[in-house]
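Appendix C reproduces, verbatim, an entry submitted by the partner laboratory led by Prof. M.T., so that reviewers can inspect both the input and the predicted structure.
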Amino acid sequence: MDSQEIKDTILAMGAKARMAAHDLAVLDSGQKNDILRAMANGLREQSAAILEANTKDIAAGEENGLTSAMLDRLRLDDARLEAIAVGIEEVADLPDPVGEVMDEWTRPNDICIQQVRVPIGVIGIIYESRPNVTSDAAVLCLKSGNATILRGGSEAIHSNKAIAHALQSGGQSAGLPDSAIQLIPFTDRESVSVMSGMDQWLDVIIPRGGKGLIETVVSLARMPVIKHYDGICHTYIDKDADVEMAVAIADDAKTHKPGVCNAMETLLVHNQIANDFLPKIATVFTEKGVEMRGDSKALEILGDAAVVASDEDWDTEYLDLIVAIKVVSGMKEAIDHINTHSSRHSECIVTADSNRAESFITRVDSACVFHNASTRFSDGGEFGFGAEIGISTDKLHARGPMALRELTSYQYRIRGNGQIRSLHATT
């Protein structure tokens, strides 16, 4: 298919999505929840087709040399598919933000003003690798009254198509408007350019993926962009940390699921605790196959267990069993390093000193800052939001895990009883 055909197809999808958004905006919570439960059942009923499609993606990924971590992000099985379906049902059980009165007041002239949550409208989402994002994005957009146009990566194209079909067909049995959930069938860069330029149909675009993809969208977008940048997450082990707790947190943050954005990529260690802590975490990392890249001070302690870290390592999201390790003189150096090299995603301090922890939390400029807890908790589900659309590293409109409330805007609703503003008024 040539560029013009791709453009025409995607623009037509945009027009259909706008019509669907108008229909979605008037559905009440009960109707949306019935649709969501039907979508979950559609996913279950079409599980065999989805898993067969996923097998094709896995085979292609292995042939194309995807890392084990990337393949794990891509892989679906019965348990993971059931978890996605259960996640849809959990979103159905969440409070509906649409229609919430955020604020209200009455003016001296008796005009009543309300600030009310409303859907954004049509949301474009561009993402890579993880097929569960297809469901998460569609479900959260539906619950918040938005139509969505999805564009997944080539690695998961078969899985994404099967999941989107199951969700749309399942939801239609309960009243889901036509074209409320659409998946772009192309994976070339041309589709990204077309989506980024169709501000007549998309109200906001959310890119989830590598830095190159996000920078491309930002440079081309004619509508607001909510960015989900790299997850260069740090864990700082303070001098007053409980060593066993610190080992457990660092281990979880790095090895529990290394191919995700909230996994730790850089470990910072206070020099007063480094001789005790580093050999212990090194034993754990070595057993689990983690490659350690350290600065000169870390290498003095770790010896042959680690290799020399380059300047690039401090700015790298590995998404793999690799960790950069730096020994610092104190919390100030740790904070300076984080604020210089972090992607503003999630950071952690492990310490028994609550005052120092509060200082760290206040001074670190990231969306999520943890005290004595793994960065792996930087997640919409773990925050109690249900599924998430992503973790925004922006500061305006949405920051951190994005869920239902972050997918709404607001409207001022003004009610009077005949008031007029005289042309002779002084203001």
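Residues 3-227+394-414 form a domain with the Aldehyde Dehydrogenase; Chain A, domain 1 fold (CATH 3.40.605.10). Additional entries are available on request from the coordinating office.
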